[in-house]
Amino acid sequence: MTAPLGTRERIDRTRARAWALQVHYGWESSGGGGTLRDALMVTLGNRRVSPRRLPYVKQLLGLVDEHLPQLDRMLHDALENWRLERLSAIDRGILRLAAAELLHVDEVPPKVTIQEAIRLAEQYGGPDSPRFVNGVLDALYKRALPQG
User: Fold this and answer.
1) Of 11, 50, 68, 116, which is most buried, counting CB atoms within 10 Å of its CB?
2) Residue 112 counted as domain residue
3) Is residue 68 situated within a structural domain?
4) Higher per-residue pLDDT: 119 or 148
């Protein structure tokens, strides 16, 4: 078990998730061509991301790049009466990033990942986004991860 993060590290991770969401949104808005890593390089050409946050931004975007078909398939299975491509780009980005973290970043507890995704949905999504994101990620968590 890893030691809990300090306040500064938690804030950096929270802000790194917001940067990753912005990069994902820009990538999708421009047609989704290339990789999210390419989109990050474009973003870094125009914006300054704190060096403390950049490694986690790169990690999240790299995980989505690497596992996108699997993430979308798993999210599709967790969505009830919705299709992933019909969601807003913000909600889709939040769900993809959170699913990548939930499934592939062992040092972040699942409840933290879900809470952080809800926080992003509150900040950037529509009025129903937080509840929607919570429901989808909770369903994904219950289906995909062993319950202990």
Assistant:
1) 116
2) yes
3) yes
4) 119
